[in-house]
Amino acid sequence: MRVGVLLTPSFLEAEAALVLEVCRLLGLEAFTLAKARHSLEGQAGAVWTPKFAISGRPQMEALVIPGGAHMSRMGRDPVVQGWLEETWPHLQAVFLGANASLLLAEAGHLSGPVAAPPLARQDLAEKGFRVVEAPLAWHDKVCSTRGYLDLVRAVLDWRLAPSELRQRLGLLESGRERSRR
After folding, report:
1. Rg (CA), the chain
2. Tens of pLDDT, residues 105-121
3. Closest by alpha carbon to 35, among 7, 14, 67?
4. pTM
5. Which of 43, 63, 78, 168 has CA 20 to 30 A from 148's CA?
6. In this structure, is the dihedral angle defined by the CA atoms of residues 79, 80, 84 and 87, taken in order, positive or negative?
């Protein structure tokens, strides 16, 4: 199982790093990709160089889009839109961090109920989406989240991660198990 983590300008490094680490612990092949293979500065100031440009990336079964600045603008980018059109039929799951729903909304790949943090809720509601108060919302193959640890929990739920791994990560909720959907 291959998981691509899409880096965008001013992406949330914490979301990308957490997902990459969870994939490693789950034994999934994960890699970073971006519109081009040049370095990108995240919101916290760290500079990352993606492993692949979207034009030369390997096939993947899952896509993770961390939140960040300029999500709506990235969703309107013709290169990103074309890549999503090409890749979409091959994806089994798409996970959205923080405000990454704005990217898919602009690109025309978001529908159904959407989970989002407070800062993105108004923009999504103005675009006609029903924003839910839940930590995550599945619609077809897209899982929108409020970001950060909710994004990580969504990936763990999707892969049915054992409680030992959740406990190791400090994400086991006492007395409750989360369901996949």
Report:
1. 15
2. 999 999 999 999 998 99
3. 7
4. 0.90
5. 78
6. positive
